[in-house]
Every structure is written in structure tokens, then in C-alpha cells.
Amino acid sequence: MPTTTADSERGFCRDCLTLQKRETGRCYHCGSPRATRHPELFQLHLAHIDCDAFYASVEKRDHPELKDKPLIIGGGKRGVVSTACYIARIRGVRSAMPMFKALEACPDAVVLKPDMEKYVRVGREIRSMMQALTPLVEPISIDEAFLDLSGTERLHGEPPALVLARFALAVEREIGVSVSAGLSYCKFLAKVASDFRKPRGFSVIGEAEAVEFLKDQPVSLIWGVGRVFAATLEQDGIKTIGQIQRMELNDLLRRYSSMGNRLYHLARGVDERTVHPDHAAKNVSAETTFNSDLSTRDQLAPILRALSEKVSARLKKAEIAGRTVVLKLKTRDFKIKTRNRQLAAPTRLADRIFETAMPLLEKELDGTRFRLLGVGVHDLTTPEKADPPDLIDTKATRRAKAEEAIDILREKFGKKAVETGYTFGQSSRFEPQQPSDREDDF
């Protein structure tokens, strides 16, 4: 479909996808106010898709009676908020907020525990729809991804912007959740754009406007500038991206080393990263927050075993393995401890993960009370060289074979068909809060 600059300036309707004949507040065809216009609208091809309050949206889809109610997905009173619907967010609830604070802000909220298996399944359905648009899909987590739609105009018969809007409508219609989309010329600004006007957002940042747009934005908008580094910049008198734009590269390098290089280029809208469809998770992990603080081996070992089994199941399902086992603990005063140990060979066995993590845990059992325990596997790789027979510890080899038999039984009869001595009868004591393969878990 041929397009012109005039077409892009008049834009199209995001509800009926009709190209607009004139610049008016509403679509001339269906009357919708959701018209998208931008001088570079039909020239841009790099997109970021982010599902809106994903876990909560899936639950509201499956429980229509919750549609107009504030909904929090998270643990018990001692847990944290995994996500919250937009009704709850208006009341002040935020992701990672302790549950007791969330319920203080929104006492009438409905609270549901995360159902990660369901969310992963829905996320894969959405990802499959993305891959039907372009092979260049780079997942960031189960509910967001980058897409490079360059070269797809001939395939779809319309420019990437319209393909993206059509995709968003299809996800709502076929999956039952909404997404927000950002369209730009680079990954950094596509991600920034997708955060605008949520939920059901569709925002565009063009190359011609990038520097001017970024000028008045806070430095925290830059990818990689977290709360701690933003505080460092503020101490140096740097609060806006415009201030960085006026600084020389050498000065930024001298002050902030390699991060200075990132600041210099992203502040000017320069991001040469490409979309990598083979982008893989850096870790697979599971963690749980307790209803009351725990401190003893007898209390924590069964939980560590169950979490190890959860991580193992994820590794096996994804057909990956990892070389480094990481233990995560959070004390009652919210201080986080992480300990790790590298293995001689990659593993995806629950037994090996547990046997590696348990000594790390025992070293921390000095009477300190913990509110959270997690375990993960890093340095992910393919499973070909994972878990070779152990010629020294022959019992480990037998345990590996037993675990394989247990996996077969669980696959056939369900997860609770076989339980180990550590976890037998313990399922009611805790529920792993959020196993994940996101890059930034720990």
C-alpha cells in the first residue's frame, strides 16, 4: 500500500485502522478518539510491545466478576506485589510494594496468588502472534519484547505502524488482554515510547525529534540508570538528560567510566543495538516470601528443596541448563544476601541444585531471621553437557536416575504424585511466589 507524508501526518484510527482523510479529533469513519499521527509514522520500524498489568489482566480475563474491582497479584501479608491492575495503581499500589502497604493503600483490593504456569502459557501465545509478524522478535520477559518490522511492508501490504496497531487489536480480541506499543528508530526510544499512555497505548518517537524530546526528561529515563546511580548523578548536579547532552564524552567517561559512554549516546538518541531473536534469559529462578520470619535449617531446607524442584522443572521444560547456582536471602530488615557456587558441569537437576545451594544456606544460619528465600541457576547453556555421570559420588548418579523416574511419574499423574522426604506434607506451608526467567531477578 503506497503511503505519503500527508498520510502519516493525518495518521490512522487505532480502533478501525482507517487512514484519516483529515486532521480531526475523532476518526471520520468510526468516531473513535484514538487516532495516531506523526510525521515519521510510516517510516519507523522498531517496536517494543509491553502487556498492560499482565498478570492482573489475565486474571480479570478469566474472572469477569473482577473487571471493575482493584486487583493485586502477590503473596500473603508478608509478600510483595507482583503486579496490580490500573484501578489499584490509581489508589497507590505499585509492583514490588510490600503487601501490607499495598493493602493499607487499597484495603478493598482482591488479592490473588500468581499462577505463573498460566501466565507463561498466555505469554507464549502472544509471542507466537509476534513471530507471525516478523522473525526478528527479541523477548525480554514473558510479557514484553522488541520487534524489528523492517522489510515486512511487502509481506503484510501495509507499513509497520499499521501492522503494529492491527496486532494490538488482535491480542485484545483473541487473547483477551491489552498491550501497549512503542514505535521508534531504536530500541531505547521504542521502550520509552511503550511506557507512555498506558494502558492500550500507542506512542511514536521519531528521529528528528529525539534530542529535543529527551532534553527535559529525567536522567532516570536512560536505560541502566537506576535509583542509586540517579542519586549519584543528582549529587553531581545532573537531573535532566539535557544536562548530559551539553557534556563532552571525555568528561562523562572520566566521571562514570563505561556508563559515561552509555549516557553520552543515549542522551542523544543514539542506540545501535539490534533486535536479536535468539536473545536468551540469563537465569532461571524461584523465590518465596514467608508469612513469618524463619531462621532454622528444619524450617528452610524443605522450602529450598521445593524451590530447587521448581527451577529444575523450568530448566527441563526450556531444554537449558546452568553452571552457577545462586542462593538469595532477604532478612527481616529487607537486606538482601546472595551467595553463589559454580559447578564443574552445567546442571538442570533439582537434586544437584539443592545439594549445591544447601551448604550456602547453612553458612548463613547464625540465628538471623529471614523473610524470603530464593534459588536460581545462572550461566545458562544447552543441555548436551549437563549432569555427566559422577564417578566419585556414585550416589549422585543414582539420585539423578531416580529424579528422571520421578519426572516421568509427575508428567503422567501430576506434580503431587511423588514428593521427596524434604517436601512431603509441606505444600501447605508455603507457595513459591514467582518463579521467573527474567534477566533481572537476581
From TrEMBL:
Site location (Substrate discrimination): Y55
What EC number(s) has UniProt assigned to this enzyme? Answer: 2.7.7.7
Record keywords: Signal included?
Answer: no
Please give the Gene Ontology molecular function terms for this protein: damaged DNA binding; DNA-directed DNA polymerase activity; magnesium ion binding
- Localisation: Cytoplasm
Catalytic activity line of the entry: DNA(n) + a 2'-deoxyribonucleoside 5'-triphosphate = DNA(n+1) + diphosphate
Q: How does it assemble?
A: Monomer.
Q: Which domain of life is it from?
A: Bacteria
Domain UmuC residue range list: 46-226
Name the residues that bind Mg(2+): D50, D143
Needed cofactors: Mg(2+)
> What name has this protein been given in UniProt?
DNA polymerase IV
